[in-house]
Design goal:
5-stranded mixed beta sheet; Nucleotidyltransferase, domain 5; 9 helices; alpha/beta
Length: about 325
């Protein structure tokens, strides 16, 4: 296996996950840190990354087996794949991350957006293996995504392609954190799921009585994972809420199909844990809104396979491929 290992580092809003990944996509060693608070300096995040890499290299019997380090960053990564233009949950603003890390880590380094890294993992080892045209959608607090065409990641002219969550799907709709109205992620994300459930509770709707009872009457304890768990347990209102999210998911995917004509959509992120309670309604909505429906091939819609490890696996694979 000499020379076949790479380190992947996945930097999110709450955690930094890192691992040594082999050529088959298996994680052979891993570590994790909490992400430094968003108000800290860029140096603190840099220190955390370097600490993870050094720990993994030290733990290896032969550190020389590791040939590269890949970074997947939750933020806008410029076309140079060296600069993090903006990271909403970190203190990076036009941060020259590649330069900063390459001075401290004696291995080739690549930097990419975390959604691109996750998509590459699914393309290389997961649900999209063998498919050349793929749209990957990550449903969490918001909506992230990545685009693979002809088996190559499409980063856009400025490196910021794939921000699908900020397509407008409802003119003059709900205000989004990005400053616009009617963005897709306001209707098909974890935040949307929780918002709609709380609105029903605040309206005094009797249909949420069972869900509220499960919460012990504490509205503030409501989370997306709790709603998904309740749906799996048979709660009808939770299933209805997930179906509504699935409807809007299908609307957005139909728009993306009109633009990119992929062969496959891969849906990951925390909300995808609802599985067919989400994807079933999404497929129905997708078919209803697809341009040229009935006269064109339809893209498949499947759940991602690699879960929360996709980002670090993809970052490692990208680093190995480009060293």
């Amino acid at each position: 296996m000499s020379g076949g290992l790479a380190i992947g580092v996945d930097i999110g809003g709450t955690k930094v996950a890192a691992g040594v990944v082999d050529r088959s996509g298996a994680i052979v060693r891993r570590t994790r840190r909490d992400t430094p608070h968003r108000s800290t300096s860029p140096l603190v995040v840099e220190d955390t990354i370097v600490d993870c890499v050094e720990e993994l290299l030290t733990a290896m019997g032969d550190p020389a087996e590791v040939v590269a380090v890949g970074i997947g960053a939750a933020g806008f990564v410029a076309a140079d794949r060296a600069t993090v233009v903006f990271a909403p949950h970190l203190s990076w603003r036009n941060e020259p991350l590649w330069d900063a890390l390459q001075r401290r880590i004696e291995l080739p380094i690549t930097v990419d957006n975390d959604a691109n890294a996750a998509a590459w993992a699914e393309h290389s080892f997961g649900a999209a293996r063998g498919e050349t045209h793929v749209v990957v959608i990550t449903l969490g607090t918001g909506i992230g995504g990545a685009l693979i065409l002809d088996s190559a990641i499409q980063r856009g002219r400025h490196g910021i392609a794939g921000e699908f969550g900020h397509m407008q799907v409802v003119p003059d709709g709900i205000r989004c954190e990005c400053g616009n109205r009617g963005c897709w992620e306001q209707y098909a994300s974890g935040n949307a799921l929780v918002r709609e459930a709380r609105a029903m509770i605040d309206a005094g709707s009797p249909v949420v009585a069972d869900l509220l009872a499960r919460l012990g009457g504490d509205r503030s304890a409501l989370t997306g994972p709790f709603i998904t768990e309740s749906a799996h347990a048979g709660d009808a209102t939770s299933r209805e809420l997930l179906a509504e999210i699935g409807h809007w998911l299908g609307v957005g995917m139909a728009n993306l199909a009109a633009a990119f004509d992929p062969g496959l959509f891969v849906v990951g992120g925390g909300v995808s844990g609802a599985d067919e309670m989400l994807l079933g309604p999404a497929r129905e909505s997708f078919r209803r809104h697809l341009t040229g429906r009935g006269y064109r091939p339809e893209a498949g819609i499947v759940r991602a396979r690699l879960g929360s490890d996709a980002g670090l696996i993809g970052a490692a694979e990208l680093a190995r491929a480009t060293r």
